[in-house]
Amino acid sequence: MIKENPLISIIIPVYNVEKYLRQCLDSVVNQSHHNFEVICINDGSTDGSFEILQEYEQKYNFFKLYSQENKGLGATWNTGIGYASGDYIYFVDSDDYIESDLIENVSKIIKENEGVDIIRFRGSAFSSFTGERIEHPYINMKDFPKDLFNKAISFDTIIDRKTILPVNAWLGLCRRQLVTENNIKFDNLQCSNDVSFFYCTLAKARSIYISDKTFVHYRKDRENNLTSKRAKNFACDLYTFETIKNFTQNLPTRQKNYLLQTNLTQHIFYWFRTYFFTKHGKSNYKMFQKFLKNISLKDLDFKIDYFKKKKSYYYYFFFISIKYMPFYFFLVMAIFYRIYLYIKTAIKNLIKRILK
Fold this sequence. Notes:
Layout: E1 8-14, H1 18-29, E2 36-43, H2 49-59, E3 63-68, H3 73-83, E4 88-91, E5 97-98, H4 102-112, E6 118-127, E7 133-134, E8 151-153, H5 155-160, E9 172-175, H6 176-181, H7 195-204, E10 208-220, H8 234-247, H9 253-274, H10 281-293, H11 312-324, H12 327-355
Parallel strand pairs: 1-2, 1-4, 2-3, 6-10
Antiparallel strand pairs: 4-9, 5-10, 6-7, 6-9, 8-10
């Protein structure tokens, strides 16, 4: 009797998360639907994580454990892909947890949407310290067009509707063949490991299903969380642009420019802006300035508006300013811009109170 491959391979990289690991693993092994395998990669943990993984391996026959010397998150995800045998792959962070009906729901989506390449869904965030929910419009896809949920759409539809999807690997599944045939890999960086992976899979996807259900819960503000490393590792964000640029060079211009503009504006510029007023702001500015001088903004064609909320020329203005303006001149401009936004928000709130 030939044993069938599982429909889904769940890949979990593990490094020193013994405090949160059981909550994550329990949410995975206790799924209501069991046509999946669990692939855990112990990335050289030095706490009790490996012993916990061994317990689960002995208890569950669909649970596979592999160990390696510490290589980092991106490399560990790539290792997991190599061991996967499922038709689809899903990545779970070892300090997060998922809903018990995730696999049941995505299995139904796969069955009803033959050949779907990517399945995405909503996420929520919670405090590592209090367990309370934290508002996170990005991973909750708050601004995503409601009429595009719960259906299979094309990449061109996403472009036409001037919308974006969150890049996080744990917010969806991808057809394994799409990844392996196109040699798509995670960058092995201090942070932003999954950015180019998502954009590259999106570039090759023919069918994308977006569910409006929330299936994954993201732990925020724990010690050693990757997000906390971003301010001092801005170079990682810039590296993702080069990966995407190289991968998309043979795509139609419209698709290529959408992916590069989205990466530059919604990811790189977002994190640059977020940490601009920190101690790393000046060094990040100089790094970003050098980066912008080495790319052609004109080739990205910012005359085309790919975004609903902020026009492309808004970003183009800031990029040109950074490209040619000394740091302290830009700092003054940024301060005045912040004051302008503060006054604008205050006036709006005042008007709302008066109208009430």
